[in-house]
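User: Could you go from structure to sequence for me? I need the amino acid at each position, not a summary. Structure tokens:
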């Protein structure tokens, strides 16, 4: 791999990606190094870098989290170690101990979990693990950052002497304070501290009566600060001892520094290792934020990016809670070059940049946001020509600059090159620029280069149709609203919808018609045909989505029915078991009843007991021996089924009862009574026949007598035939 040109990295906004990666670093050195990540020139080093990042990413999803790698930079200490007779201060030594501890912890952790992190372990195992540095620093420096008393015998003796002298100073000062206070030479505050020494606050009028060294006075001059003479002698002794203590500390630090100096290469390795871990960690965190993965590598030149997201657009939209539309694109030997066409603002340039940026990220050791079924390959070079590249410094127009770029492409293009050109052929006369662009494209094609271009030129769309290993693609547009759908469709050229978009934006129809007449009829027809095909493709796409949705719903319903069927089957089995159990109990009850009846008649107790014992024996022979626990489970299950059945039976009984009650409550319609009908009173037994009906009353003849009764009180016994 020959690397990727700086211009291409700028075109694809790769520095912005590195800026985002560096923000995940937790050290200043890591942050700086992350911004200098560049595409790898060696495939072996690239594969190692990708595996390292992928393994670190996996640590976020398992219980074996890699220990913290934060550290304070020791660059200054490393420089001092290179210079003879220099020594490190206490802070520097503590930093060296801390960085050694951090590096050792991570190296030992990776060794312990090498099955989870094989590549990280191999990478870390090259660095030596030693506790010498940590133990050496800990032996002389305590946790408060002071040199320990027992760092040397002399230091111990000096500090003992210092403590004694300090005791004498305090004692002599207390005596002087008591004496002069009794003589009323001191001010109300009695004492103060000047230059880290205790002094007496003497009234100015008594300054000559107090023996000692004047250390200063108050602002008003009413108080003079004097160190008592008795204390002065001890103070001088203390200063000498402290000076000796400081010299001994420096001697100890020099000795420790000289012990550490031979470990300079190891310390450099520790710092480099932790910087690398910081960068790997930042790459993994960035990958997690993008849902990025390490896709499968193809040995052949085969690039298949499924559901590929533009990283910068994805994170920007995520922040604004907006959707991001992924693209799927494939480059292989029989479709090496893709010509993307369609109207502006449809997503052509973003698609082009997505493919380019993901390829650059991958070749720089970064994981990419694509579907796990994607396939990737490596290119020696990635060439790009994106955006308006007017060069003010060199007085070059856009077209001149683009021609210069094409010249560079022609020198570098081969079968291991991926080229990306946005708005190919623009910047000059459409006819001439289009013809030159077509020639360039043919040349790239014959050199077997891989590439993606975006264009509005019809001749380039036609060329893609004619050449076998070049294909057209377009960005889908809604044919009614003329809104972009941000979906790439391979296999068909896209219309620029020039006149349709103009009409939508309010340009008068008469002007559009005049414009149509000014261009060749064949071009209008070609663009119209493409537009028609694109609309048809869009319609088919919607139909396909609708069918997929229906299929999914049917599949879900089928699964639901299957589940219900399974539940019903289980219930039926439970009910069948309950029914069989109840039938057996009925049979046993019948048997016992027959025996009871027989005994009632013959009173033969022995025969009864023999028969009963026989029945019990037969029943027990059918039983299986089960444990008390199993028996309990079966009983509970049976009880549950019983309760369920009883609930359902209760509901049915309730419904029947209500229906019966309703039937009783609902009175039958009364028949129309006529003369000659045989009737009786509602609460009576005597039956008579109707002789006459007047208004709402009937004359009923009972044979012996007749009576007048209301029709409502009568009920029909037999109608007249």
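Assistant: Here is the amino acid at each position, in order:
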């Amino acid at each position: 791999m020959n690397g990727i040109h700086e211009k291409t990295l700028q075109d694809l906004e790769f520095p912005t990606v590195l800026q985002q990666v560096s923000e995940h670093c937790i050290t200043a050195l890591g942050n700086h190094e992350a911004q200098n990540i560049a595409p790898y020139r060696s495939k072996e080093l690239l594969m190692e870098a990708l595996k390292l990042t992928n393994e670190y990413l996996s640590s976020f999803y398992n219980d074996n989290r890699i220990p913290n790698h934060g550290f304070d930079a020791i660059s200054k200490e490393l420089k001092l170690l290179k210079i003879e007779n220099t020594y490190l201060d206490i802070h520097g030594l503590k930093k060296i101990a801390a960085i050694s501890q951090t590096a050792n912890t991570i190296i030992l952790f990776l060794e312990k979990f090498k099955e989870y992190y094989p590549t990280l372990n191999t990478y870390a195992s090259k660095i030596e693990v030693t506790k010498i540095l940590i133990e050496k620093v800990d032996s002389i420096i305590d946790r408060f950052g002071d040199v320990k008393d027992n760092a040397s015998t002399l230091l111990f003796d000096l500090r003992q002497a210092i403590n004694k002298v300090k005791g004498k100073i305090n004692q002599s000062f207390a005596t002087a304070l008591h004496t002069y206070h009794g003589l009323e030479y001191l001010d109300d505050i009695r004492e103060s501290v000047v230059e880290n020494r205790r002094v007496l606050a003497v009234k100015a009028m008594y300054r000559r009566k107090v023996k000692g060294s004047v250390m200063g006075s108050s602002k008003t001059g009413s108080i003079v600060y004097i160190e008592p003479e008795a204390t002065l002698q001890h103070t001088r002794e203390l200063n000498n001892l402290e000076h000796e203590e400081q010299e001994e500390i420096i001697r100890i630090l020099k000795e420790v520094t000289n012990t550490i100096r031979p470990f300079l290469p190891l310390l450099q390795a520790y710092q480099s290792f932790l910087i690398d871990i910081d960068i790997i960690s930042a790459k993994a965190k960035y990958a997690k934020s993008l849902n990025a993965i390490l896709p499968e590598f193809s040995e052949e030149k085969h690039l298949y990016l499924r559901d590929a997201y533009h990283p910068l657009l994805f994170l920007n939209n995520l922040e604004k809670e907006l959707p991001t539309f992924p693209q799927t694109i494939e480059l292989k030997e029989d479709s090496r070059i893709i010509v993307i066409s369609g109207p502006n603002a449809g997503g052509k340039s973003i698609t082009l940049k997505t493919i380019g940026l993901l390829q650059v990220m991958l070749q720089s050791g970064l994981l990419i946001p694509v579907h796990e079924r994607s396939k990737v390959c490596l290119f020696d070079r990635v060439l790009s020509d994106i955006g308006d590249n007017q060069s003010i410094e060199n007085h070059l127009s856009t077209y001149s600059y683009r021609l210069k770029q094409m010249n560079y492409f022609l020198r570098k293009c081969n079968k291991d090159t991926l080229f990306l050109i946005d708005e190919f052929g623009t910047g000059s006369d459409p006819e001439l620029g289009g013809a030159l662009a077509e020639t360039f494209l043919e040349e790239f094609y014959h050199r077997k280069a891989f590439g993606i271009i975006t264009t509005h030129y019809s001749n380039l769309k036609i060329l893609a149709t004619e050449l076998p290993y070049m294909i057209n693609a377009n960005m889908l547009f809604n044919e009614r609203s003329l809104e972009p759908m941000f979906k790439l469709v391979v296999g068909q050229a896209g219309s620029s919808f020039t006149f349709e978009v103009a009409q939508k934006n309010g340009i008068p129809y008469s002007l559009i018609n005049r414009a149509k007449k000014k261009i060749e009829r064949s071009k209008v027809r070609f663009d119209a045909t493409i537009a028609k095909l694109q609309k048809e493709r869009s319609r088919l796409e919607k139909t396909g989505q609708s069918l997929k949705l229906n299929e999914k719903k049917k599949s879900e319903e089928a699964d639901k029915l299957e589940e219900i069927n399974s539940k019903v089957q289980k219930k039926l089995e439970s009910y069948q078991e309950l029914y069989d159990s109840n039938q057996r109990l009925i049979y046993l009850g019948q048997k016992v009843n027959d025996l009871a009846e027989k005994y009632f008649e013959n009173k033969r107790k022995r025969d009864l007991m023999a028969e009963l014992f026989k029945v019990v024996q037969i029943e027990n022979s059918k039983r299986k021996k089960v444990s008390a626990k199993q028996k309990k489970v079966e009983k509970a299950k049976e009880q549950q089924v019983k309760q369920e059945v009883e609930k359902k039976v209760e509901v049915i009984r309730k419904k029947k009862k209500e229906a019966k009650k309703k039937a009783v409550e609902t009175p039958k319609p009364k028949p129309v009574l006529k003369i000659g009908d045989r009737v009786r009173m509602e609460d009576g037994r005597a039956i008579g026949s109707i002789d006459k009906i007047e208004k709402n009353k009937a004359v009923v003849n009972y044979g012996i007598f007749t009576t007048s009764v209301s029709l409502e009180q009568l009920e029909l016994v037999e109608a007249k035939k």
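One structural detail worth keeping in mind: The mean pLDDT is 84.
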